[in-house]
Amino acid sequence: MLIEALLPLFRRSAANSRILNISSQLGLLNKVRDLSLRSMLLDEGALTEGKIEGMTSRFLAEVKDGTWARRGWPAVWTDYAVSKLALNAYSRLLAARLARAGDRVAVNCFCPGFTRTDMTRGWGTRTAEEAGRVAAGLALLPPGELPTGKFFKWCTPQLYSKL
Ligand SMILES: NC(=O)c1ccc[n+]([C@@H]2O[C@H](COP(=O)([O-])OP(=O)(O)OC[C@H]3O[C@@H](n4cnc5c(N)ncnc54)[C@H](OP(=O)(O)O)[C@@H]3O)[C@@H](O)[C@H]2O)c1
Questions:
Q1: How many CB atoms lie within 10 A of CB 123?
Q2: 90 CB contacts (<8 Å, ≥6 apart)?
Q3: Which of 33, 112, 140, 154 could bond 131 through an S-S bridge, CB–CB 3.0 to 4.6 Å?
Q4: How many distinct structural domains can be found in the chain?
Q5: Which superkingdom heads the taxonomic lineage of this protein's source (predicted)?
């Protein structure tokens, strides 16, 4: 909703706009064990917001009826991973759509890695400041170096389709 509200402003901007969604490796496609779900998310031509919403609704329904554990969802932190799976898919969809329309808006995702914050109860291999610095560096990449539709694992850009 925030992104949709901001898009008209981005389009009016003379500069390149950037969306950097904070995601997680736990939501990468290689974590999805249900192969038909993985194919659905990989089919860039046919992927829609409706299909992404359908995926999250299906997960919620399976949690409700107690069947989710045998349905091939990501095995680790499943609820969190499904939310990031949806975020990654939406980011990829949006990046492709905006690029097709000629909008100068880059849409990427970033996983900060295991970072010492409230979410990890202070555990992690890096500080929030270090992760924040990398995120800011990625968000502020010069226009010529700014990709779109990429997942940055720490500071390495990776193609979704290879993961
Ligand atoms: N820490 C890690 O190891 C790690 C690894 C991979 C990805 N990430 C991602 O990095 C991002 C930041 O996580 P973090 O580790 O900094 O977690 P955190 O310490 O728990 O901070 C989460 C922040 O999000 C805010 N928030 C939560 N729900 C919200 C809502 N509905 N509306 C508005 N704000 C909300 C919280 O606000 P309040 O303080 O007001 O509740 C808090 O400031 C998350 O997207 C997380 O998935 C973290």
A1: 10
A2: 49, 52
A3: 112
A4: 1
A5: Eukaryota
119, 127, 154: residue to mutate for ligand 1 pocket, most atoms within 8 A of CB: 119
Q: How far is CA 146 from CA 20, 44, 46, 99, in A?
A: 11, 21, 26, 13
**Domain span at 149:** 2-162
pTM listed for this prediction: 0.94
Q: Which CATH number covers residue 123?
A: 3.40.50.720
From first to last of its 163 residues, the chain has per-residue pLDDT tens of 899 999 999 999 999 999 999 999 999 999 999 999 999 999 988 999 999 999 999 999 999 999 999 999 999 999 999 999 999 999 999 999 999 999 999 999 999 999 999 999 999 999 999 999 999 999 999 988 999 999 999 888 775 543 3
The protein residue with its alpha carbon nearest to ligand 1, atom 43, reads: 118
Backbone angles phi, psi at 142, to 5 degrees: -60, 150
Q: Is the dihedral of CA 119, 120, 125, 128 positive or negative?
A: positive
CB of 24 shorter than 6 A to ligand 1: yes
